[in-house]
Design brief:
16 strands; 5-stranded antiparallel sheet; 573 residues
Amino acid sequence: MVFEACGVISGLAEFLPTPLLVLQVGGLLPRPLMHPRDALQPRRHHGAGFLFHDAEYAALTLRMRDRVSPGEVFDRLATMGLVTLHADEEQAREHITTHARGGQAIIVATNDEAAALNECIRTGRVERREVDDALTATGSDGLPIGRGDVIQTRRNDSDLGVANRQQWVVQHVTDDGTLYVREVGSGRKNPHTVTLPAEYVAEHAHLSYAATAYGVQGATVAASHTVLTEATSATGVYVGMTRGRETNRLHIAATDMADAKAQFIAAMERDPADRGLDHATAQAVEAVHGLVSDGPVRLVTEELARLDQEAERAQSQAERWERITARLDAQRDAHRAEDEQDAAAIHAAEQVRAELTGPLVEQAKQYGTAYLDAVENEAATSARASTVGRFGKRKVRAEHQAAKEQAQAQWEWVRDGWCGEPPRTRLALHTWAAQAAARKAEDDPRVSDAVRAVEAAHAERRMTQQRHRRERVALLFIELGADEARRDQFGMRTTNPHRNAQNARTRAALNRAEADKLRSLPVNDAARRIEANRAEQEHKRQQAARRARQLHEPFERDSHPSNSRREGPGRGL
């Protein structure tokens, strides 16, 4: 029956886009079952069921699939420039972090290697501001997940709308670790978006920059990077080196090409289930650990590990926010000191100007007051002239004429002495005196110098303020990213690093306190406490989702208004 099934699968292989790997006892079959017709080369070049742009490489993949002359295969890969040597595995990870691009496949042998490479790649993306590390959740691999990270879901969940090995880009992370994600690689015009609760993320989601050969089966991309280690099998090499249509690069930590070739041959002779004594020992230890820690012990152990990790991460975030706060405070203090210096310079310049122009203002007031007194005296004598009797008119007329001549003399004296019209009212006297003194002071070089000093001080202050705004935006861009810098530039509310540091320290303290509480309880009691806490969190999550739906439903109802009372055509005029 096995052979009959294999025959049927082989006959159907030509319709499959990728090689079909069939499970056997102990692991994967050493080579995929293919139809002979897949070796033909129409339009583009086939290699073990794949389409490649290079006919020579297509033929080489067939030899890798069949494990024919692995030494010659390696020599040909090296000649084609597809083998990259590294001093050690850490250098290989750093090289891939720097040179790999989005959409390329990165293949490793084990989940531990994938986690190490995922962490390295994520660190590089955080440094390049491609991932926001301010608020993160924790995945099943123990690594943080932030906005911009690429993740993979590892368990089918129809309620959430996710499938095993489906990839997503994180769009938002909430304070409780819930993720809002958008699917990638679907080809849809409007990609699917879902919400992943923190519990699902912690148990069934992790970073997805690098994956094992099993995890990338069925994927076809433009280019791939395969890391060869002592755990890599022939199938791992073959799967990794056939993911890319254009380029498939092999990375090996080796002293020279001879060492790399020996490692390649050893990998090509290694079955998927044969990963060496060290790997077998580790697997046995893990299995025993699983047996021992099954049930409440395992639940409590994992929860304690999670709490300790969350506490450490929150502590690290608090320290980061405190460093940012210190830099922003130092800049603000430096700017405030410069502002105070500019203000002192302006005050000193204005004081010099006031000392020089003050006497002139007082003198102008005296002249203006004398003129206004003369005008009022003329008005008073004119009023008396209209009320005096016939015998006193001559005297009053003489007084009025004298007052009129005095007012005219005062007008000419003010005009000639102060270069302008006299004040019209006593309310305008102060303003007029200041303007008249300023015109008069133009002839005094000391006053001119003081005025220029005041203007220069104000201009310097404006330039300093503009520089301060640029420096603040630049520091916010470096510390918090372009979005926060832009929000601050337009006067919008921005992130508060001091508050974030306090919140992170509070989270760290709460996690440590909960871990201490669990350690103080018997195992069964601790397990019940954990389950109760999770049930409460799930209840709160469901309540929040219900409230969100209730807030959204009125808008949905109003978006399609209808009038059930109105039937048939309406009446009109």
